[in-house]
Design brief:
By secondary structure, this protein is α+β, with helices and mostly antiparallel strands. It folds into two domains: 66 residues, lambda repressor-like DNA-binding domains (434 Repressor (Amino-terminal Domain)), CATH 1.10.260; 111 residues, Jelly Rolls, CATH 2.60.120.10. Helix content is 18%, strand content 27%. The chain contains four helices and nine strands. It has a six-stranded antiparallel sheet, with no helix packed on it. The longest helix is centred in the first third of the chain and has 11 residues. The two termini are 17 Å apart.
Length: 206
Amino acid sequence: MPAGEDRQDRDGAAGHAPRIGAHLRAARLAARKTIAEVAAESGLTKGFLSKLERDLTSVSVASLMRLCDALRISVAALFQDAKGEVVRSGQYPPINFGGTGIREYLLTPGGEKRVQAILSEIEPGGGSGDEPYALPVDVEFVFMLDGQMVIEVAGEAHALGTGDAITFPAGTRHAWRVPPGAGPARVLWILSPALPEAGPGARGGE
């Protein structure tokens, strides 16, 4: 199985996340590419991509980045339904940024370009996947609202607890996970500027 693939079916953590299969399939058809062609370009398997387009599996963040690159779309395009200026408590637009055991919500308006804030609720053992990734923005700020998380930045692991924060260049390859023995975690991610809406998804996984 290629690095970064997550074969978790719908009754697992994949069921928590908004479905992105229709977006991915539409992008592939618009690009006039077969599943085999996208698989070859992204380093993922045909079977995995077929399941992903039908929302039958989850995907690691790094794999989603490579897939968006192959389709020549941005990760931000998957957030296109998250709109509005005021984002009220209890009405956060759900998004799917990849990973397993995660529920994520966009806190900034969909049209905001200067900054992007994402709230993650992560189950024990959940995370971005084993393969590090990078983002095509300048800075990433991470604040632990509750719980514990280990984040690896440029090969160095940092254990974070409630109230801890870390800031680093988003183009630095990184990965993160909540320890299996820990409780659930709530994490605030701030990206500056916001993820671009056009062009390749990211540099991650190349």
